[in-house]
Amino acid sequence: MTIGSFLLHRVFYWHPWNPTKRLQSFERQVALLRFVGLWPPLEGSVRVRTAYRIYGWCFRILFMYIYTLTQVLYFVDVRDLKISLLIKLEIFNRKIVRIQKCVQDVECPLEVIKAMNNTWLIGTIFMAACYGTVTFWTISTLYEWKRQLMLPAWFPFDYSESLLVFIPVWLYQAFGIYMSATYNVATDTLETGLISHVSGQTARLGILMSKVTLDILGHKSSGFIPYNDLRKHNPKCMMCNVISSLTKDINYYNDSHGPSYGYLVELTYFHKGLLCYAREIIDIFNVSIFTQIIASVIIICMTGLRLLTGHYDPWATTGDVFYLLAMICQIWQFCYVGNEVSHSISLLIKLEIFNRKIVRIQKCVQDVECPLEVIKAMNNTWLIGTIFMAACYGTVTFWTISTLYEWKRQLMLPAWFPFDYSESLLVFIPVWLYQAFGIYMSATYNVATDTLETGLISHVSGQTARLGILMSKVTLDIVLKRI
């Protein structure tokens, strides 16, 4: 996750996000969903929304359900598994009002830039993978014009006899495949975008909580958002409504116990609203995400099997590789945003544990007065070296035993010598011993150098952790003196 965050927010972070336009990162998803008939107009009348729903049903029936019906006999084909997509579309169609409300909640003043960048970039990667795969399939059928469709399909007539019949059928399937990719891109990136915003809000909650600590320490937290930030609420936002309904209590604690205590109560209410928002997203998308992940894993396994069994058509092989990458991107985006949420929550948990166990932490800090080498780093160095050494020497020993078990005057590894060492036993034994000693020396070099490197790195890690504990001791002393 650390490497992924570096790539996402250092290498690819070029988009100039505007914090005042918080739906900017969802523009592509909303545009695609509006085109395929899954995003009724928010400000439209009942008649307009009804007409749009009719358009959406007609669009799905023509280019999804009938298109799927033409391939019902070929569901075993690895490149076209539509069952998960149909389930996902049904969930979107039934819960579109709640989904639209979750997206509108992104307009809340509590937004963060990192979540906007995640939403836009993950969607871009997945869209490029999907449309790139579909485009390659289209080109591959045009390269060798054999009146062959991109995917196996059944029609109640022979479409290959006449060019006038084949071209409309080919165009219909091509458009159906692009619509299938559009449905997948729009729905999946919308889901991951909302989850990413939950992660961003969780991380922001941790930053805002650190403001209370800064106030206790007597620092001016001008870099943080002022106390009344959470009260500048959007009436359409779920999190803001939870906070605004309790503003009277917040003001009471602010006046009676001081601004820091009132702000802490306000953050507690914000945390409650964030949990409600996350629970709503989970309740809407849990079945959809689970179904899609299962289907994608099956497709990845089947595609990998096709590539391993091998076929001599370079176009088909390249198409399978593109499809495999698209499915890996689909799985990766869910894993990435899920890990981001877990990481943000783990930081909050660490802060909560620190506050609850401050006395025990003090005792641990007093016990840290030890030499520069910390025990954990020393143990890591020894354990990693032992495991690697056992693996290397075990492998070499097995090679040695395997050649002795069947005595065929055969060396452990293929080697060339300027003479025939297998003719005489007096010649073969020194050559065999020479190679055995060389292999053991090679293993020794590897073990010695690699474990030395990892040991030094482990000690750097241990010293870094010890530095953090020592720094926390200073912070604890300051906090306890002020309390």
UniProtKB/TrEMBL annotation:
Q: Which UniProt keywords apply?
A: Cell membrane, Membrane, Olfaction, Receptor, Sensory transduction, Transducer, Transmembrane, Transmembrane helix
Q: Which Gene Ontology cellular component terms are annotated?
A: plasma membrane
Q: Name one GO biological process term.
A: signal transduction
| TM regions (residue ranges) | 57-76, 120-143, 163-181, 289-309, 321-339, 382-405, 425-443
Q: What is the lineage of its organism?
A: Eukaryota, Metazoa, Ecdysozoa, Arthropoda, Hexapoda
Name the family: Belongs to the insect chemoreceptor superfamily. Heteromeric odorant receptor channel (TC 1.A.69) family.
InterPro entries under this entry?
Answer: 7tm6_olfct_rcpt
Q: Which Pfam families match?
A: 7tm_6
Task: Report what the protein is called.
Answer: Odorant receptor
Provide the topology term for how it sits in the membrane. Multi-pass membrane protein
Under Gene Ontology molecular function, one entry of this record is: olfactory receptor activity
The gene for this chain is 6031982
Chief location category: membrane
